[in-house]
Every structure is written in C-alpha cells, then in structure tokens.
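**Sequence, structure tokens**
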Amino acid sequence: MNILEIVCYTFAGVVSIQVMFYLFVFGKFAFSKEKKQTKENVPVSVIICAKNEATNLRTFLPYILNQDYANYQIVLINDASIDDTLEVMEDFANTNDSIKIVNVKNNEAFWANKKYALTLGIKAAKHNILLFTDADCKPVSKHWISEMVSHFNNSKSIVLGYGAYSKVKNSILNKLVRFETLLTATQYMAFAKLGMPYMGVGRNLAYTKDLFFKANGFMGHMHIRSGDDDLFINQVGNSKNTAICVTKESFTTSNPKTTLASWIKQKRRHITAANHYKKAHKFLLGLFYISQLLFWILSITLIASQSFINVVVALIALRFIAQFLSIGFSAKKLNEQDLIFLLPILELFLITSQLTIFIINLFSKPTHWK
C-alpha cells in the first residue's frame, strides 16, 4: 500500500466522521420540530452586566423595558465603569420602578472579573428565574421574555437561547462572524438535545437562582476570566435540566465586531474558556474540528495528485451534501439563510482563523473580559 492509498483511506475515515457529525449529531437540532410551549406569567429577573456601556444602554435598554410581559424586574450591574454607565442607569431607574441597580467597585481579589459582578447582581435579583443578556443586545420582539421563560418547568432549570448578530451588507467579516455564531449555536443546541449540554451564550441565556446557588455559583472557575456563560452551563447542565428555545421571537441581536483584530480578541477569550470544558465535550468538539481541518487538507492533496479522483469527488460530494442539509436547516431555524451560499468559503476562513487563534493563545493568554 503506497502513501496515496493510505491518504485516501484516511480521507474516507475523515469524511465518515464529518457525515456522522452533520447528520446524526447536528441533525438532532437541524431536523427537529419545536413543540409549542404553554406560556405562564411567572416572575423573572432580567440581568444585564455592563462595563463602560453608557451609549449601548441608552440605545438598547428601552427594548427591554418595552417587553410585553407583566411581571419582571431589570437588574442593571455597573461593573466598575469609568464612563457614564452608572448615570445612565440611574436616569432610567428614576422613571422605571422595575429597575434595580447594583454598583460594583473593583475588588483586589476579583480584579476585572465579570463573574464577581454578576454574582452580586444575581444575589440582588428578587425572582428565581434569571434571564441574561448584554448591554449591547436587543430582543427582536416584545415577546422575548415570554418565549424564553415558557420553557421552564419542574424539570427544566436552564434555557439556552440564540444570540444573533446584525447583518451588514457587502461585508465578508460580518458573514464570517455570523457563520461562526450559526455553527456554534447549531453545535450547542444539538448537544443539548442529545442530553450533553456544554455551553450557552450570555447574550441570551436563562437559568434559576436556585440552580446557581446550589452549584456554588462561579466558584469552581472564578479564577478563569471568561466563561460566565459557557463554563457555568458546562458545569451544571445535564440531560434532564436543559431546554433550548429557538422561536424567532426569542432571539436577541447585537452589533458584531467590525474589524478582524477585535473579533479575534473576542474569540481568544472564548477559546480560553473552552479549554476548561468537560473531557467528553472537549474530545467531541476537538474531533469535529480536526476532522474539518483534515477534510480540507486531504481533499486538496488528493485532487492535486489526481489520485483516486472518482472516489475522492464522490466522498467530497457526500460530505458537502450532509453539511448543506444540516447547516441549511439550522440556518433556516435561526434566520441565517443568506450564509448558506458561501458555506465552503466561510468554513475555510473560519478553520484558518480558529487555528491562528489557537496558536496565538499558546503564547499569550487574554486576561480581561473588557
């Protein structure tokens, strides 16, 4: 058996792994039908942690205040801001009795740690159901709270939502950011449906106060600067207590990074947190990424060598069919259909970016959440 035969057999194995992920893992979310939930008017605390977010609060907080929901408070956490964030919060609170302000000053033991600020905000919340979003996020409808909360019941104490990014015309970076968000959401929604929840996003996430304190909050990973959303869900989520919410009225949207450097900085923090996931999650996510990378390397190698060309083309076609089906149905659920036509290009860009970020993080670790 020569080297090209070995490469071809390896390529067939890689394609098999990719098809398995796209059809049988991600397909658990992509091809599923969502059940309608009974909506009840249970009390909710919406929690927003803000650091130097005066402008965004002025713009987006009115969308939270305008929710069509009868019984909710808003907990605004000022995390040692040096701009007018606290003053903006106070202006809103003067005209809205539903707002509770938690003013957090820097603590030497928890310097620049968002988890410390969030913990104080959670303690101040008066309701058991906690719904999290960011200061730069906007609910896409007046029914955001009711849609997310409708998934709580006696067994479900975590609800994972979708935090989208705004669309920018004629921007390949915007499409890359949104594609990465789409792929990540497809993964964590699918794993949750398989009974293996491993993360959520703080732009749109809910869980109960009881669950937070039963798990001792963020104490298990307080020393890690990032991961207030994904590491906590990785710690406490299981097959019984986690639900997903993907009705379009439940989405939030925020403005994406506008430069490649700022997006890479953001992703560096996220990848740092992922290093602390449970071993099973790291293995499966790593297997998917490595199989992605090998698919492109081996397919290009085999096509360039003109070896086993008919078999190689058939395997490439099989993999792309599985990918387009899985990601296509997911994109339809998450209102990201415009990305599908550029899927191979965006995937190649994303794999390259992730590899670059991984290498950078080997030599330098991000330390602050902002």
Notes: The mean pLDDT is 91. The longest strand covers residues 72-79. Residues 176 and 345 are 9 Å apart (CA to CA). The chain has two domains: 3-29+280-363, 34-260.
